[in-house]
């Protein structure tokens, strides 16, 4: 298949490029503990791909505290969580790039296809710098300017617009259900990394299985349906 059939590939960050998703969990768990709320890895699945404030609301609902704080107090809590997260980020190095990702990006770029990053994390630039990937992506969506969180398609459609890519000729790669929903709502081809992402058009168990030739083959089947 010629590369002209694919305009761009748009990646999620946490859980796809690196496992900073786990750091988000640790930071949220620390804040939750301070509020007397207990959350675990199972609950954390609900937070993946969700914005900071929406994640906080889910945690407060878990402790039945959603009506106990003002918007200002909630904003302070969210910032406190971010400070916890940034402390964890100091441990990140290029060794923390997920298996298979560098090879995948290289193979995409060889074909002259644009790549973008669509993460709800407002720390995306910090993460990319720690991983030494700050100059890798052709466009990185500024999460602070995105009004609607995943599963809304806004973030992926923004990436497509800035990359001058037709969403129907664009591939999105995600590890969260909300992210897959966002990609599908954008009318893009959805690649899911994880066993539970059954709405994905193509699913792999881990990033090391993200082989460009296999993705292209599945994408070709999709557009020819």
TrEMBL record:
Keyword DNA-binding carried by entry: no
Catalytic activity annotated for this protein? Answer: beta-D-glucose 1-phosphate = beta-D-glucose 6-phosphate
| Pfam families listed in its UniProt record | Hydrolase
Superkingdom assignment: Bacteria
| Site label Important for catalytic activity and assists the phosphoryl transfer reaction to Asp8 by balancing charge and orienting the reacting groups, positions | 119, 150
Write down the InterPro entries for this protein, in alphabetical order: B-phosphoglucomutase_hydrolase, Beta-PGM, Beta-PGM-like, HAD-like_sf, HAD-SF_hydro_IA, HAD_sf, PGP-like_dom2
Q: Name one GO biological process term.
A: carbohydrate metabolic process
> EC number(s) for this protein?
5.4.2.6
Q: Which cofactor does it need?
A: Mg(2+)
EC class name: isomerase
MF-aspect GO terms: beta-phosphoglucomutase activity; magnesium ion binding
Give the annotated active site. Answer: 12 (nucleophile), 14 (proton donor/acceptor)
Q: List positions binding substrate.
A: 12-14, 28, 47-52, 55, 81, 119-123, 150
Q: Does the keyword Isomerase apply?
A: yes
The record's family statement is:
Belongs to the HAD-like hydrolase superfamily. CbbY/CbbZ/Gph/YieH family.
Protein name per the record: Beta-phosphoglucomutase
